[in-house]
Design goal:
Length: 188
Protein backbone atom coordinates (compact mmCIF):
# COMPACT_ATOMS: atom_id res chain seq x y z
CA UNK A 1 0.00 0.00 0.00
CA UNK A 2 1.25 3.43 -0.91
CA UNK A 3 -0.03 6.88 -0.01
CA UNK A 4 -0.50 10.10 -1.95
CA UNK A 5 3.09 11.17 -1.15
CA UNK A 6 4.29 8.28 -3.38
CA UNK A 7 2.37 9.52 -6.44
CA UNK A 8 4.59 10.14 -9.47
CA UNK A 9 4.22 10.09 -13.25
CA UNK A 10 4.13 6.54 -14.59
CA UNK A 11 2.97 4.95 -11.31
CA UNK A 12 0.36 2.22 -11.89
CA UNK A 13 -2.43 1.92 -9.33
CA UNK A 14 -5.59 -0.14 -8.82
CA UNK A 15 -8.61 2.18 -8.76
CA UNK A 16 -12.33 1.48 -9.39
CA UNK A 17 -11.69 -2.21 -10.30
CA UNK A 18 -9.21 -1.29 -13.06
CA UNK A 19 -5.51 -0.50 -13.38
CA UNK A 20 -4.65 3.11 -14.10
CA UNK A 21 -1.35 4.80 -14.93
CA UNK A 22 -0.75 8.29 -13.51
CA UNK A 23 0.10 10.60 -16.40
CA UNK A 24 -0.09 13.92 -14.56
CA UNK A 25 -0.31 15.03 -10.93
CA UNK A 26 -0.21 18.17 -8.80
CA UNK A 27 0.09 18.45 -5.02
CA UNK A 28 -2.18 21.30 -3.87
CA UNK A 29 -2.01 22.93 -0.44
CA UNK A 30 -4.73 25.57 -0.27
CA UNK A 31 -4.50 28.29 2.37
CA UNK A 32 -7.67 27.01 3.96
CA UNK A 33 -8.58 23.34 4.28
CA UNK A 34 -6.62 20.10 3.88
CA UNK A 35 -4.04 19.40 1.16
CA UNK A 36 -4.93 17.15 -1.78
CA UNK A 37 -3.42 15.66 -4.93
CA UNK A 38 -5.06 16.35 -8.29
CA UNK A 39 -4.29 13.59 -10.84
CA UNK A 40 -4.95 12.55 -14.43
CA UNK A 41 -5.27 8.77 -14.68
CA UNK A 42 -5.18 6.71 -17.89
CA UNK A 43 -6.78 3.27 -17.89
CA UNK A 44 -4.34 0.68 -19.20
CA UNK A 45 -7.20 -1.53 -20.41
CA UNK A 46 -9.43 1.00 -22.20
CA UNK A 47 -7.11 3.99 -22.71
CA UNK A 48 -9.72 6.32 -21.17
CA UNK A 49 -8.30 9.32 -19.27
CA UNK A 50 -10.05 10.50 -16.10
CA UNK A 51 -9.40 13.29 -13.60
CA UNK A 52 -9.37 12.38 -9.93
CA UNK A 53 -8.57 14.11 -6.64
CA UNK A 54 -7.08 12.23 -3.70
CA UNK A 55 -7.04 13.80 -0.23
CA UNK A 56 -3.57 14.03 1.35
CA UNK A 57 -2.52 10.83 3.09
CA UNK A 58 -5.11 8.75 1.19
CA UNK A 59 -3.97 5.12 0.78
CA UNK A 60 -3.62 3.98 -2.83
CA UNK A 61 -3.17 0.41 -4.04
CA UNK A 62 -0.09 0.47 -6.26
CA UNK A 63 0.72 -2.26 -8.78
CA UNK A 64 4.27 -3.63 -8.88
CA UNK A 65 5.60 -3.34 -12.42
CA UNK A 66 8.79 -4.27 -14.23
CA UNK A 67 10.12 -2.45 -17.25
CA UNK A 68 11.53 -4.28 -20.26
CA UNK A 69 12.94 -3.03 -23.54
CA UNK A 70 10.93 -4.20 -26.54
CA UNK A 71 11.43 -3.56 -30.26
CA UNK A 72 8.37 -2.60 -32.30
CA UNK A 73 8.00 -5.07 -35.19
CA UNK A 74 4.78 -4.34 -37.10
CA UNK A 75 1.07 -3.52 -36.95
CA UNK A 76 -1.38 -5.99 -38.52
CA UNK A 77 -4.36 -3.62 -38.30
CA UNK A 78 -5.69 -5.00 -35.01
CA UNK A 79 -2.56 -5.58 -32.91
CA UNK A 80 0.86 -4.00 -32.53
CA UNK A 81 3.59 -6.66 -32.31
CA UNK A 82 6.71 -6.23 -30.13
CA UNK A 83 9.79 -8.40 -29.44
CA UNK A 84 11.64 -8.54 -26.11
CA UNK A 85 15.26 -7.54 -26.74
CA UNK A 86 16.69 -9.87 -24.08
CA UNK A 87 14.91 -13.19 -24.71
CA UNK A 88 13.29 -12.58 -28.15
CA UNK A 89 9.76 -13.46 -26.98
CA UNK A 90 6.98 -11.63 -28.80
CA UNK A 91 3.89 -9.91 -27.44
CA UNK A 92 0.97 -8.19 -29.11
CA UNK A 93 -0.88 -5.16 -27.76
CA UNK A 94 -4.00 -3.29 -28.78
CA UNK A 95 -3.80 0.37 -29.82
CA UNK A 96 -5.26 1.71 -26.53
CA UNK A 97 -2.19 0.45 -24.58
CA UNK A 98 0.01 2.78 -26.65
CA UNK A 99 0.40 6.50 -26.02
CA UNK A 100 1.37 7.66 -29.53
CA UNK A 101 1.17 4.72 -31.98
CA UNK A 102 1.18 7.14 -34.94
CA UNK A 103 4.79 8.15 -34.12
CA UNK A 104 6.19 4.59 -33.89
CA UNK A 105 8.19 3.26 -36.81
CA UNK A 106 9.25 -0.34 -37.25
CA UNK A 107 12.43 -1.13 -35.30
CA UNK A 108 11.77 1.53 -32.63
CA UNK A 109 12.83 0.46 -29.13
CA UNK A 110 10.22 1.19 -26.45
CA UNK A 111 9.82 0.46 -22.73
CA UNK A 112 6.95 -1.86 -21.81
CA UNK A 113 5.54 -1.90 -18.27
CA UNK A 114 4.67 -5.45 -17.20
CA UNK A 115 2.52 -6.34 -14.16
CA UNK A 116 4.63 -8.62 -11.94
CA UNK A 117 1.55 -10.43 -10.55
CA UNK A 118 0.31 -11.92 -13.83
CA UNK A 119 3.09 -10.96 -16.33
CA UNK A 120 0.59 -9.02 -18.46
CA UNK A 121 1.86 -5.96 -20.36
CA UNK A 122 0.21 -2.78 -19.04
CA UNK A 123 1.45 0.07 -21.20
CA UNK A 124 4.15 1.21 -23.60
CA UNK A 125 6.42 4.19 -22.90
CA UNK A 126 7.88 5.81 -26.00
CA UNK A 127 11.30 7.48 -25.98
CA UNK A 128 11.20 11.23 -25.18
CA UNK A 129 11.68 12.05 -28.88
CA UNK A 130 11.76 10.21 -32.20
CA UNK A 131 13.47 11.05 -35.49
CA UNK A 132 11.23 10.62 -38.54
CA UNK A 133 11.51 11.55 -42.20
CA UNK A 134 9.05 13.98 -43.80
CA UNK A 135 7.28 12.22 -46.69
CA UNK A 136 4.92 15.01 -47.77
CA UNK A 137 4.62 18.73 -47.16
CA UNK A 138 3.73 21.78 -49.22
CA UNK A 139 6.71 23.93 -50.20
CA UNK A 140 7.17 27.04 -48.06
CA UNK A 141 6.61 30.29 -49.98
CA UNK A 142 9.46 32.75 -49.55
CA UNK A 143 8.37 36.02 -47.95
CA UNK A 144 5.13 34.47 -46.73
CA UNK A 145 6.27 34.39 -43.10
CA UNK A 146 4.76 35.78 -39.99
CA UNK A 147 6.12 35.04 -36.56
CA UNK A 148 6.46 31.27 -36.01
CA UNK A 149 4.57 30.33 -39.19
CA UNK A 150 3.98 26.57 -39.54
CA UNK A 151 2.58 24.15 -42.09
CA UNK A 152 1.37 20.54 -41.79
CA UNK A 153 3.81 17.78 -42.76
CA UNK A 154 3.22 14.03 -43.04
CA UNK A 155 6.01 11.85 -41.66
CA UNK A 156 6.96 8.27 -42.63
CA UNK A 157 4.64 6.71 -40.01
CA UNK A 158 1.60 8.56 -41.43
CA UNK A 159 1.30 11.07 -38.56
CA UNK A 160 0.76 14.76 -39.32
CA UNK A 161 2.93 17.29 -37.47
CA UNK A 162 3.03 21.08 -37.73
CA UNK A 163 6.54 22.16 -38.82
CA UNK A 164 8.25 25.47 -39.68
CA UNK A 165 8.08 26.66 -43.31
CA UNK A 166 11.74 25.79 -44.08
CA UNK A 167 11.15 22.02 -43.66
CA UNK A 168 11.01 20.15 -46.99
CA UNK A 169 10.19 16.60 -48.10
CA UNK A 170 13.03 14.21 -47.26
CA UNK A 171 14.17 16.19 -44.20
CA UNK A 172 14.56 14.27 -40.95
CA UNK A 173 12.93 15.94 -37.97
CA UNK A 174 12.94 15.28 -34.23
CA UNK A 175 9.44 15.03 -32.73
CA UNK A 176 8.64 15.26 -29.02
CA UNK A 177 6.53 12.14 -28.40
CA UNK A 178 4.60 13.36 -25.35
CA UNK A 179 2.98 16.28 -27.20
CA UNK A 180 3.53 15.16 -30.80
CA UNK A 181 5.22 18.45 -31.66
CA UNK A 182 8.16 19.39 -33.88
CA UNK A 183 11.40 19.92 -31.95
CA UNK A 184 14.20 20.41 -34.50
CA UNK A 185 15.55 19.48 -37.93
CA UNK A 186 18.29 16.83 -37.96
CA UNK A 187 21.29 17.65 -40.13
CA UNK A 188 23.07 14.67 -41.65
Amino acid sequence: MASTSDIRNGLCIKYNHDIYKIIEFLHVKPGKGPAFVRTKLKSVTTGKVIDNTFSAGHKIDDVRVETHKFQYLYNDGEYYHFMNESDYTQIQLTENALDRPDLMKEGEVVTVLINTEDNMPLSVDMPASVILEVTHTEPGVKGNTATNATKPATVETGATVNVPLFINEGDKIKIETEKGTYKERIKE
